[in-house]
Amino acid sequence: MLAPYACQPGESRGRQQPESMSTFRSPFQRDRDRIIHSSAFRRLKHKTQVFVEHEGDYYRTRLTHSIEVAQVARTISGVLGLNTDLAECIALAHDLGHTPFGHTGEDALAKLMEPYGGFDHNAQAMRIVTRLERHYAEFDGLNLTWESLEGIAKHNGPVEGPLPYALAEANAQWDLELHTYASAEAQVAAIADDVAYSHHDLHDGLRSGLFTEDDLMELPVTAPAFAEVDALYPGLEPMRRRHEALRRVFGRMVEDVIAVAQGRLEAAQPKSVEEIRQMGATVIRFSKPLYQELKVIRSFLFHRMYRAPSVMKERAKVTAVVNDLFPLFMRQPELLPQEWRRDVEAAEDETTLARIVADYVAGMTDRFALQEHARLFG
């Protein structure tokens, strides 16, 4: 029983390459399954979230992060009567375009790609699902439904101004109406990303020793959570205390999003997904008070975790890896694997070659990038 403003599987705009319907899966379930079985999704296992993948077995990677985002998206969309399969699909796909070494790798590659149209991981995700996954006999990419592509392209809101080349190419093939907001399911995937990383970065930061529970007792949201646990379970062992407190932080974020969405949907009474797209603002969001409190936590994480001296030292190392590999492959594209040679030979100009090299470097896992750098540079 889906709400009238949910994406209805039977009303999907379909796929660019027509396919027969599955006898037992909805179009959005098939999209989700294709993403899970894609090469790009598997590679997320060894891609950085904050800490470089090899630094510890317990830290989140892009894969575990994406799974957590999908879990949050299913929970929120289920309560709101949205299509849980579509929300999960977009959540699982949202980080497919990430480079090795997280945002550090993306920053380095974006700078290298400035003369060739830039680089953006959201746009790169579109390039992956529309072009780079090459497993099917009848098409390149995954041939996802319009609704899934729309959600990947603009789950963070309308896309305005000059488009990244990867997104421009996909939008030229199939108009994704980038000037409008996305479906409520895509908006849920976006807020689920915020919930997941706000929660697990606190976990990982504590495990790494970059800050302590005492530091979190000075912050909004986290301080009341620890105080509640201490009142209920005095003397609780440290790891259990940490987990109990942070699960309350997690719960507060999810409950806040649901309450705000229910209020906004009740006030607007949208009758279709098109009305959601034309509302002129997101319907899925944090309340203003919680948003302000989360800004304080994110500022704390930025200074104590993302820009911690040990993290910055590692950022410098991995930036050098990307800065070495990209120019080398540009000078000597014959070093690319055999399966990339056909694309290289068909490249008409330097820009096309640069985009092929960027595809290859962006697709690397952390460990493969480090191995290739060691092999090629000693």
UniProtKB/TrEMBL annotation:
GO biological process: dGTP catabolic process
Coiled-coil features, chain-numbered ranges: none
NCBIfam families named among the record's database cross-references: dGTP_triPase, PRK01286.1-1, PRK01286.1-3
Gene Ontology molecular function: dGTPase activity
Disordered: annotated segments: 1-28
Biased composition (Polar residues): 15-26
Species lineage: Bacteria, Pseudomonadati, Pseudomonadota, Alphaproteobacteria, Rhodobacterales
Keywords tagged on the record: Hydrolase
Name used for this protein in its record: Deoxyguanosinetriphosphate triphosphohydrolase-like protein
Highest taxon listed in the record's lineage: Bacteria
Family: Belongs to the dGTPase family. Type 2 subfamily.
PROSITE patterns: HD
Span of domain HD: 62-198
